[in-house]
Give the backbone structure.
Amino acid sequence: MKWFLYLISFYLIASGSCFILYTIQCKDLLKNVLTKNYEKIISVSAIIIGLLLIISAFHAQGFWFIVVLGIIAIGKGFFVLFNPKNSFDNIRNWYLNTASDQTYRLFGIISIVIGTVMITWI
């Protein structure tokens, strides 16, 4: 299952780099992907990725870090799936309409750091 950790790590580094370098294009892409039609797909994929992260953590040196990321992903999946008090809708509207370019770049930096930490602890 190390291959899955490498895949997620490279994805985080690549997507973080895109958020920093191509902020406007990534924002437009997310506006197309984060629609009401894809909520169930997003939630189920987050839950599956979280479970795979927890299973893969047994093959890595940074066990607890990867388990925590898996638990966060599972929590995010259930949060999107059940959407208590339309909280996900409010967060999505803020993220797509109100958040500045610096916010997207900050999330890109965080993504690169998490991906780099994961790849060094495999």
Notes: Residues 2-120 form one domain.
